[in-house]
Design brief:
The complex is a heterodimer of chains A (511) and B (64). With 511 residues, chain A is mostly helical. Chain A has a single domain, classed as Sodium/glucose cotransporter, CATH 1.20.1730. Helices cover 76% and strands 1% of the residues of chain A. In chain A, a hairpin with a 2-residue loop joins strand 1 and strand 2. In chain A, helix 1 packs across helix 8, helix 1 runs parallel beside helix 17 and helix 7 packs across helix 18. Chain A starts with 8 loop residues before the first helix and ends with a helix. With 64 residues, chain B is mainly α. In chain B, 66% of the residues lie in helices and 6% in strands. In chain B, helix 1 runs antiparallel to helix 2. Chain B is elongated, with a radius of gyration of 18 Å. Chain B starts with a helix and ends with a helix. In chain B, 27% of the residues are buried. The chains are: A mainly alpha (511), B mainly alpha (64). The interface between A and B is large, with 49 and 38 residues.
Chain lengths: 511, 64
């Protein structure tokens, strides 16, 4: 993943101190717990203030993929990946669709997991199980990608054989993460997110500074691209074609809507101390793409201009190669790269720990607590959640090591947004429309999933690079999903569409 | 409605393919897309800060 020289013992001591501080936070959070309940373990007793809610949302939303993946994607398609700014901003705008009502309901009815809302709204076992399976699958997939990124980040930083370094990196970083996660629950995850979020933010600014120092202003990179002899480089600065523009729109819709349905995102809505804190935290998040995605895009642009030799498969090394140049430039450059690497590890771990905790909450409360042992006490459910965390992480560590050289298989599994967006009607629309019934929602969800997966994996000629004329298959699935639900609503309610009155609590109480 | 306008303005469908205009060191269509992203952020933050949701409204009503 990178082209850096092996880190010195002093640099390793810096990274090790940072990693050990995370475990220490886990112990502090363990002693700070107020009661042995699900609400305390998974939502910290709804105690998050503004700084914690902002930094935990930030650290969770921006992963290692933002740095490596976005700079690599920019390297491949050029300035058009500025669309990432739009879809990351769209996420915050999409929170406005359901968060106001969801927050009120979550506080009033003490939700812990996303499925608690579905149970409350629809009381349908089929929908609960289907939604939980989709959410757990999507999150496990997301978590696996983070674990693999952790392993790759460790390759080349020491003199150890790269494959061994990958395995050691996955095991070491995952162990640290699962230790502080199971010790202190969401409190530990959020507190480490505060540190990780700050390190990440500093890391992005350091990266921008380093790029400017090394290569000069972005205008020089743009000029080099526009005057390049290679047409493919010139094309990376020109206005995108129609297919890319449709893809741009598709990304805004699918990532904007889909990301707000990540269970860890919904649980952060539940965990805010007050509505004002949540609103202000989201308001700060609205500006995060400008200090994060934009810098990752600029990194890719500098790489196009100054490292034109990377081919398709090695383009994800763009950031690593850039950092390699900076590392060699001066002592200051060397240490800036060390700080940046701490930020990269922070980004991966903070995203992974939140996903792991959310999966554990859904498996223990929505599956074990609801269907296997409904009489289980909160303390037992919390204990079962921790056992699930360890069991799942062992499986995923094994998969991360096994799949390390099978990237094509990984790409096959990665349809998370196509699946996640099928839950939009169940969560985002049903919270506004009273006349939505469980049966049409389940049928719509199944239809949407089937259509999305058939389109994605059916080998059709009109599906190019996983998209249909630039649009994600999940969006076609969502249209079918909505059509089925509308048909069902017409049958059950004779075509009458009834909205919930505001405020929503009364309507839900009368259900 | 404002979000739809921002969406239409942000995606560079209306630029000529031959445009080589540079603005703030980047192709002009990129600078405009970034500016629209900033406007969207400001508008979203304004809505979030200016307009309370249900529970804040209810708390205000109870205070009154």
């Amino acid at each position: 993943m990178n082209s850096l020289d092996a880190f010195s013992p002093a640099a390793w001591a810096f990274i090790a101190t940072y990693l050990l501080s995370l475990i220490l936070i886990g112990f502090v959070a363990f002693h700070a717990r107020k009661e042995n309940t699900l609400s305390d373990f998974y939502l910290a007793g709804n105690s998050f203030g503004l700084i914690v809610i902002f930094l935990t949302l930030y650290a969770t939303q921006y992963s290692g993929n933002t740095l490596f993946g976005y700079s690599g994607k920019t390297y491949r398609i050029g300035y058009a990946w500025v669309m990432s700014l739009h879809f990351m901003t769209a996420i915050v705008a999409c929170y406005l669709i359901h968060s106001p009502r969801l927050y009120v309901l979550a506080r009033k009815f003490r939700y812990i997991t996303p499925t608690d809302y579905l149970q409350h709204r629809f009381s349908s076992d089929a929908l609960n199980i289907l939604a939980t399976v989709i959410l757990v699958f999507v999150l496990a997939n997301y978590l696996l990608a983070q674990l693999m990124a952790m392993g790759r980040a460790m390759q080349g930083l020491s003199d150890v054989d790269p494959q061994l370094a990958y395995t050691q990196g996955v095991i070491l970083l995952t162990s640290i993460m699962v230790i502080y996660g199971t010790l202190g629950g969401i409190r530990a995850v959020a507190w480490t997110d505060v540190i990780q979020g700050l390190v990440l933010m500093v890391g992005f600014f350091v990266l921008m500074f380093v790029l400017y120092q090394q290569f000069g202003p972005i205008s020089l990179a743009t000029q080099k691209m526009q005057q390049a002899l290679d047409v493919s480089v010139v094309n990376k600065a020109v206005v995108p074609d129609a297919n890319r523009l449709r893809e741009w729109l598709s990304y805004i819709i699918i990532v904007g809507l889909g990301s707000t349905l990540y269970p860890q995102a919904m649980q952060r809505i539940y965990a805010a101390r007050s509505e004002k804190v949540l609103r202000h935290g989201l308001a700060l998040m609205a500006f995060a793409p400008l200090i994060t995605s934009l810098i990752a895009v600029c990194t890719g642009i500098y790489a196009i201009a100054y490292l034109p030799e990377l081919d398709g498969t090695s383009s994800d090394q763009a950031l690593g190669r850039i950092l390699g140049l900076v590392q060699h430039s001066s002592v200051l450059g060397y240490w800036l790269v060390v700080i940046l690497y701490a930020a990269i590890l922070a980004a991966m771990m903070s995203t992974a720990d939140s996903a792991l905790l959310s999966i554990s909450s859904m498996l223990s409360k929505d599956i074990y607590g609801r269907y296997v042992n409904p009489e289980a006490s909160e303390a037992r459910l919390t204990r079962v959640g921790k056992i699930f965390s360890w069991g799942l992480i062992l499986l995923l560590v094994w998969l991360a090591i096994y799949l390390s050289d099978k990237t094509s298989l990984l790409k096959l599994l990665d349809r998370k947004f196509d699946l996640l967006i099928q839950l939009v009607p169940a969560f985002m629309i049903s919270i506004h429309w009273k006349s939505m019934q469980a049966v049409p929602v389940v049928l719509g969800l199944v239809a949407g999933l089937v259509v999305s997966l058939i389109l994605a994996y059916g080998g059709f000629d009109f599906v190019q690079a996983g998209k249909i004329y630039g649009f994600h298959p999940g969006l076609v699935g969502l249209l079918i999903n909505l059509a089925v639900i509308y048909g069902g609503m017409s049958l059950f309610n004779h075509g009458k569409l009834v909205r919930y009155d505001s405020p929503i609590f009364d309507s839900f109480q009368s259900k | 409605m404002i979000y739809v306008c921002l969406l239409l303005l942000g995606i560079p469908w209306y630029w000529s393919k031959d445009s080589n205009l540079v603005l703030f060191g980047m192709p002009a269509w990129v600078s405009i897309a970034i500016a629209v992203s900033l406007l969207t952020s400001i508008f979203t933050a304004f809505i979030l800060i200016r307009y309370p949701w249900h529970s804040d409204k209810q708390a205000q009503d109870e205070d009154e």
